[in-house]
Amino acid sequence: MNNIYSIKQRIRKIPGVAHAGASINKSLNICFRKKNVAMFHTGRCGSTILGNMLNAHSKVFWASEIFERFMRLDGNEIRDDILTSTINLSRHSRISNIYGFETKYLPEQNLSEKCLNVSIEDYIRSLRALGFSYFIILHRKNYLKRAISVQVAKEIGKWHSKERVVSAKKVYIDINSFQTGFRQEPLLDLFASMDESYDRLRHSVPSNSLFLTYEDDILNNPLSAYEKVCEFLDLKNEKPEINLHRTNPFSYEQMVLNFEEIEAVLRNTKYSWMLDK
Predict the structure, then answer these.
(1) Residue 40 near residue 105 (C-beta atoms within 8 A)
(2) DSSP character for 212?
(3) Tens of pLDDT along 28-75?
(4) Is the pTM of this model over 0.85?
(5) Rg (CA), the chain
(6) Cβ-contact 139, 158 below 8 angstroms
(7) Which CATH number fits domain 33-276: 3.20.20.70, 3.40.50.10490, 3.65.10.10, 3.40.50.300?
(8) How many angstroms separate the CA atoms of 40 and 104, rounded?
(9) Where are the alpha helices (DSSP H) in 94-186?
(10) What letter would DSSP give residue 170?
């Protein structure tokens, strides 16, 4: 990396290019970068702790959720070209061997008509056209626990914790109108949408993509996910620190005010197993 910096400094001294900093950055980034990586998830699935560990790697620039700022805007404020322009602005901002970023892929989230306004299939095609050839899918199988985690975070105004959480925050889960991204919908409709979106994503990414789950690869030991990503990208394991703790390590009864209501809705559905975890 020091060699890259020296080259950059020498180029800046060439007559006629002293003020071409942005172009130099872009050209050097393209020249030295070996891999472009796109990670997909729905949020509340361990993506932040995994992203933090990857960004601490000496050969990785991990930009996290680059489209999240557009989720706070009115759809009318968003330009048509934000997909390509946002990715290019992000990945050309730092020199690294590997660049990665994250997309929340539900139709209510980053791909919504009020944000990127693109289908999963077209989005994958756009990423591949932009040179992305490494895809990571991080899935949380228990949608109910994810929904509770979302609601807790909204109410306490805190999405992550660097300290061990010792007391639960009890929340009410609106089974008829649960907010996800730009949409409010019944809990069962949300779960069905998550199933459909995950299935479409699985069939859209290349067959050699890396599939991780929160339950198997993050929950008990986030280093498991990190090690799998390092192997996937042919990176040395630099043994990063784990700097975040679980925000809701509690039972349903400790976290949910209306668990009996949720139980009645899910009990005779294919999601009933989520009640017992």
Answers:
(1) yes
(2) E
(3) 555 557 899 999 999 999 999 999 999 999 999 999 999 999 998 765
(4) yes
(5) 21
(6) no
(7) 3.40.50.300
(8) 6
(9) 120-129, 143-156
(10) P
